[in-house]
Every structure is written in structure tokens, then in C-alpha cells.
Amino acid sequence: MKKQSNSYTLIYSIGLVFLVGVLLSIVYQALKPMQDQNIADDKKKQILSAALVVPTADESISELYDKTIVDAYVVNSSGEKVSANADAFDVDVAAEVKKPADERLLPVFVANTDEGVKYILPIYGAGLWGPIWGYVSFNADGQTIYGAYFAHQGETPGLGAEIETPTFQSQFSGKSLFRDDEFRSLAVSKVGQEPTDRDYVHAISGGTITSQGVGAMFENSLAPYESFFKQLKLNAK
Amino acid sequence: MSKASKIAFLNPLSKENPVIVQVLGICSALAVTTKLEPAFVMTLSVVAVLALSNVIISLIRKTIPTSIRIIVQLVVVAALVVMVDQVLKAYNYEVSKQLSVFIGLIITNCILMGRLEAFALNNGPWLSFLDGVGNGLGYGMILVIVAFFRELLGSGTLFGYQVVPDSWYEMGYMNNGMMILPPMALITVACIIWVHRSRNKELQEK
Predict the structure, then answer these.
(1) What residues contact residue B80 under an 8 Å CB cut-off, 6+ apart?
(2) Which end of chain B has fewer CB atoms at under 10 Å, N or C?
(3) Residue A124 lies in a domain
(4) The pLDDT of residue B151
(5) What's the confidence (pLDDT) of residue A73?
(6) Which residue in chain B has the smallest CA separation from A18?
(7) Is the pTM of this model over 0.90?
(8) In chain B, which residue's Cα lies nearest the Cα of A5?
């Protein structure tokens, strides 16, 4: 067959694509278990860092997670535990935040830290370029934030990506989502525009959209937990 | 080593360096050079992809129909890049998270297509392999030099270990946040080009 002919070109390209396809699926299948393990470990690390638990060098994430996270369950928007075969760790938060509040599965991770019991809740929202997400840990009475962890997919380095830094995240400790027993969420505001009706943290200069995204993420992801917070407060008394 | 293989391997390191002489692959040189570790991993990935794709294209160069040769090159490169990405995700998840989109962007790195078109299509597998490794290293060398200065001056660390002593910070020394931002990568590359040209007079434009 002539090298320049149409049929040669056609057969050549079909053969090549087929070969490459088979090769890639073999690689994917062979490495998938290890990748899943890494993704789970990474998620555990994120959950732990929201409770300000940092692994030491000689400790594996899984061990530390099993030791620290003493309980994990799913609640609904009335604060009742949902038992229907939902594992808190496997709940897809990205999909849940799109549902109406009363249909959502709301995961709760209970951590036993040196500072006492903390409740860790996942949050998920949108930044400027892509999704942003994180975990927020609350003190045992559910009223004040203990620690926060944020991550992003592709925010601008130096601007929106600053939400990843300890400087930004440490602002959240001690803030409350409630004022006069009412859920107010938390504002992320510019210097000089601080609201008076709720707690606030300062936005990142130059990262306006991402900062607003963090504010909206708090409101949208944590509002359905209102009843859960109120129960925590009752139990703490 | 024969003369031809020496040229294929050594020229890209200095006289035909892809970054500072041919000014290719600048995009990733800006993006992955804030820290040394991703710069190193990026270098290894590019060396691996470049050497392998050069060899594969060189092996099948006589069978490739001319009308679709660019597409064939792209398929080979894309397949290799996806494999590198999968391997990183399995064995070094932290780094793969940092490099995320840039690994995918190796596909569009002009150095790859450039070497495939200019070299692998006309030369044997062994020479093409050397050419690929040489160009990958030439590219990585610049990446690592830029990352060294950006990490040292921007974060006061090397490979994540703090090298600027605490006493300096107490005396008022501050990390230069500018070094972390992309423009400083360009300026550092420009400084390297300046030094390189002043030592290689034949590269200077009249």
C-alpha cells in the first residue's frame, strides 16, 4: 500500500488510536488503587488540619485520622442523624450543596483533640476560576469556630490563592456564626466595610471574587446545619 | 561517544538551549519555579516525555503518513503525558497536586513538538534519545536555577527547608514577596540570558 494513500492514512490512524487507547486503560487500571488511597489520605489530612491537628513526620495520616476522629455521621437539616447507609466520609459535598437545604446529607466529623471535642463540617463553593472548598471545626458548643482549612483548584497565586495560607485561615478562629441566638453566617469584608450585624474576617486584597466566594460558601454550606448547632448548644449546657 | 551524539546531547545544554536561546517553554518556566521541588519534578517529567517521544517517533518515522504527522506526534506525546500524570498521582500525590495543570500542559510545550519535527523525524532512535535527554536537561537546568533564586529570596527556603537564619528575620530581613509572582521569573530568566550571552559572543545579535 502506498504511504501517501488515503486508505493507508486511515488505517494507520485507527491502529494508532486503538493501540494508545488500550495502553492508557491498562496504566489507569493498574494505578487506580494507589491513586484512590492517595486521594482518601489527602482528604483525611484536610479534615485534620481544620481541627488544627498536624501529623508529625513519623506518623501516617490514616493512623492519626483513626486516632483523632472518634465519630463521623450524617445529619439532615433538622439536626437529626440520618442512618440510611450514608458514610460521612463518602458524602459528595460538591453535589450536596446544590440540593435544597432540607434534602441535603450533612456530614459531621467529631474530633477528639488536645483542646477537647471539636465538630468538623465540610464546606464547598465557587471562587473566581474554579471550585473552592474546605473544612471548618467548631468548639463543642457549636457557637465559635476553632479552626478552618481552605483549598482551591486554580485561584490566582498571590491573590485568590491566599485563602490557602495560615495567615488567612487563622483569622477564623474564635469567630461565631451566631448573633443573639440567630444564624448570621460570617462576612468576608474589605477593611472599612465591616458589617455590624455579624462577625467578619478581612478579605484578601486583590482577591475580591475569591473572598466573596468564601463568604458565600460559609452561608450556603453551613446554614443547613443551624439546627445541629442549636442542639450542640443545648447539649453543652 | 561519536561526534554526532556529542552534538545532539551537549548543544541543547548551552549553545542551543531551548529556554534561553530558542526561548521555548517559557510558560511553564514561569509557573513551576516558585519552589525547587516542583521544578525538579517538572524537569524529570519533561526529560522522560521528551526522550521517550523522540525515540518512539524516531522508530516509526518511516511509517508515518506525511499528511497526519503532526497528529501522530500529538497522540504519542499526549499518551506519554497522561501516563506521567497517572504515575505521579499514584506515587507522589503532593507534587502532582502542585503541578496539576502544568503536567497536562507539557503536551503544548513547544520544545516537544519542536524537537519531534526538527530532529526525531530525520534521525535514528539513539541520536533522538540523546537529543531528547539533552533538551530536557537544558530546559530543566534553567528551571532549577530560576527556582533556586525564587525560593531562596521569596520564601527563604530551599527544598522546603529554611536556610535564612531566624536571627536575620529578627534583625528586620524580610522575604521578597515579589519573587513569588510570575513577573520575577521572567526577569530572572532575562538575567540568565544576559550572563549567557555575554559569555557566548557568537549568540549576540548585531
Answers:
(1) B48, B49, B52, B53, B56
(2) C
(3) yes
(4) 87
(5) 87
(6) B75
(7) no
(8) B65
